[in-house]
Amino acid sequence: MGRIAGAQAKQKCPSAHPLPTSRVHDFPTLTYAFLPPRLLVVSALLFDFMMPAPAPAPEPAPEPQESLPCNALRQLRASLDGTVAAKLMNATELIHALERKRRDTVLPTTLDALDTLLGGGLPRGKMVELTGRRASGRFSVVLSALAAATSMGEAAVLIDVGDHFDPQLAEENGVDLPRVLWVRPQTMKQAVMAAEMLAATGFQLIVLDAGLAGFTKAGRRAPDASWVRLARAAEAHGTALLISTPWPVTGTASEAVLVAERTRTHWIGQGRSPRLLAGITTDVRLEKHRHMKAGTRATLRFAMADSVDATTGNTPRR
Amino acid sequence: MTRLACLYVPLFPLAARLRSEPELKDDAIAIVEGNGGGAHVIAATRRARTKGIQAGQTLTQARAILPKLIARGRDAECERTAQEALLEVAETFSPRIEDAGDGVVFADVTGLERHFASELDLAKAAIRAADDVALPIRCGIAASKLAARVAAELPKSPTVVDPGKEAEFLAPLPLTRLSPQLDAAATLRRWGLGSIGELANLPESEVASRLGDLGRELHYAARGIDPRPLIPRALPPEFREGMELEWPLVALEPFLFIANAALDRLAKRLEIQGFACKRLELTMNLEPDGFHSRAIDLPAPTRDVKTMLTLLRLDLEKTPPGAPVAGFSIVAHPDRPRRAQLSLFGPSALSPEKLATTIARLVSMLGDDRVGMPVAVDGHLPDRYAIDTFDPPAAPDMKRKPRKSRGVVAARVFRPALPVEVITRENEGTTRITAIHGEGDIDGSVRTCSGPWKIEESWWSATPASNEYWDVELDRGGTYRVYQASTSEWFVDARYE
Question: Least CB-CB distance to A168: which of B373, B376, B405?
Fold first, then answer.
């Protein structure tokens, strides 16, 4: 009885914001579909209270009367106070609400200045491009984004055109290496194809990084249409995409474009005393954003692993 | 009461061949056995039969009747794989099946009435399942193997013999359905017996006294009594597809075209059993003799035909067989696809099956050492790395807050390290790098440098490393890690970024 009721509810209750089928199947819908209707409602109510405060929903779409899962739920909603009834949902509605809520969140890079510039972090389902020549600090941003995502328990992908990634340094930066898939394509075309495949697999953060050497060696740029297709794939699967390249490549497909410039290197020691590399500082400018004012700047500071270790009391590397 | 289903493929050699070459299905095809003048037809398609081609005719006679007749030799490889496919279809209905050979399989279907509305529905489902693996079958269900086999051989399919009605079912059928031996058949014909029922009506002792044990067995069979039990077979450890080619192939593309169809059939068979392929073994029969074998380990269990074909192509391009290919067989070693419980409230977990397929496709596109999990290797020299199979730990049940970034400067490593020319200056016992000349941006005078740091590693081995590292900032921008190897050559191996 419970199984049939749950299955019917799933079929008859399309969400106001339908999701791609592939994503919906990723959720354990049967767990809820197996519950008898009364327990289903109560459990959904409990889960809803366990969740963090919901972000303000855009507009509740008018729900046709016939789409209600069962009479019991309708009657229960009618008998409750409006605020409580709004929190009451069946399994399908709960799954769709969770997915909508997840998409509204961002993936922080935990670099405060950069997160502020982007309105909280890397938006899910969108493509952010970070450009900068030579020692612009791009790669440090890439590692920070990977470290933040993997520390949250998310699996992340680094598509490394030019083969520049150093696992030792990444580990020192806090990247949880077992949660990182390292893909080393040889051309940008392969990199974009790989990113599209991986977005469809369900990775929540994909970083595509191309160094200058790897980029010029790869020679050809990926066609503009492929970036548009990649952006659509990211949107369809809720993937946060960070594209880090020496110069702009994504055109109009990206949600935001950041430019890293005016990098300064800091040394310890003056005059005749020996020098020691202390770190780098880079200015990042918001070149374009679809929903925020462009032109704002932020300064990012990165220190050598030795200096960081000194502050935490760990043994320096050298 | 035991209920047995018989799955029977009529004209099995022909059906097996058409399964491998489905494009010939509508043509006039004959399967022949033997060589030269002794080649004779053993099966023919309906189109050929309507033109007068019959089993037993020599190939010369058949060609005289129908000059455009397409003749194919009997292919043992095709028949073996078709039989395996038939067994796997039967296994989807019952774990107790018996391989009776030549397109015949028995399955114990006792107790399946809870899953199917009737035995007729069960038989229809079996026919549909066999159709999915390109095998046209007939199905009969009865209480004994004999009755099930006779029911399956009837043109009207499926046929279900009600329990206890075996004798009634067999009675009107001609005696040839019992396939008696030639001399016994001649004797029975002399007695004037035409149907199975007429034999069953004779006294058992009288038949036995005249025909011996053979007569007793025939009499039992005529009464629907078959004491032979079902002998279940063990599960195969691998899945195999292949065929003998009509003419040897020397180019890769035509071979891959045929291999694609074989992989497609393998994938369907694996899917039926709920398996994925973790290792492919390809054996090619070469002209004029010899064979060539190779094994391809897949990065993750998958049933994706495109991925398997690409890996096969890459492997064949890397090491061609070196002679024309006259036949092949592909063996798939099965493995259970990965499964995982997904979380509602934690971070989105990856579907293991989807991930496995994606990784396999990436490996086929980029190469097997270019996709995986990065591993930090113990040691002292920078730029040590290894790559391992990507198998991420389970996602946490609840969401976690991100850990604050340590803000460490990253080094963009150059692999291999770039050789450069370095100009140094000695000053009061210390060495300073004043300029670097290399490719691209790595060229110019040095603004600031620090070093050296000497790192020695593997001094106990045959290939010791003893490098002196420097950090240098160029006037034109960019901070690099430079080292002097023990051979006095200079390299840039990373840029701080």
Answer: B376
* B483 token code pair: 């080292």
Q: Are strands B465-474 and B479-484 parallel, antiparallel or unpaired?
A: antiparallel
Cβ proximity of B403 and B412 under 8 Å: no
Q: Does A108 touch chain B (CB under 8 A)?
A: yes
Question: Among the listed ranges A194-198, B123-127, B242-246, which one has the minimum average pLDDT value?
Answer: B242-246
Residues B27, A17: Cα–Cα separation, whole Å:
52
- Per DSSP, the three-state class of B219 is helix
> Chain B partners of A181 at a C-beta cutoff of 8 Å?
359, 371-373, 390, 392
CB spacing of A304 vs B409 below 8 angstroms: yes
What was the ipTM of the complex prediction?
A: 0.70
A75 touches chain B (CB under 8 A): no
Q: Is A299 helix (H, G, I), strand (E, B) or coil?
A: strand
Type of residue at B298: L
Contact B484, B492 (CB under 8 A): no
What is the DSSP annotation of B134-201? T---EEEEESSHHHHHHHHHSSS-SEEPPTT-HHHHHTTSBGGGG---HHHHHHHHHTT--BHHHHHH
Instruction: Encode A125-162: b = buried (16+ Cβ within 10 Å), e = exposed.
Output: bbbbbbbbbbbbbbbbbbbbbbbbbbbbbbbbbbbbbb
- Minimal CA–CA distance to A14: which of A88, A67, A60? A67
**Weakest mean pLDDT among A20-34, A120-134, A225-239, A246-260:** A20-34
d(CA B137, CA B176): 21
Q: How confident is the model at residue B140 (pLDDT cuts 50, 70, 90)?
A: very high
Closest CA to A185 of A154, A150, A222: A222
Encode pLDDT of B78-119 as tens digits: 898 899 899 989 988 888 899 988 899 999 998 887 888 889
Query: Tokens at residue B447, please?
Result: 């603004």
Q: Which of A148, A179, A277 lies nearest to residue B479, judging by beta carbons?
A: A277
Nearest to A184 among B370, B401, B478 (CB): B370
CB B61 within 8 A of CB B71: no
Chain A residue closest to B476 (CA)? Answer: A134
Question: Looking at the complex, does the CB of residue A308 fall below 8 Å from at least one CB of chain B?
Answer: yes
Q: B393-446, pLDDT tens digit by residue?
A: 888 878 788 888 788 899 999 888 899 999 988 877 788 889 999 888 888 999
Q: Where are the alpha helices (DSSP H) in A165-288?
A: 167-172, 188-201, 212-218, 224-237
Phi and psi, residue A109, nearest 5°:
-90, -10
pLDDT given at position A178? 94
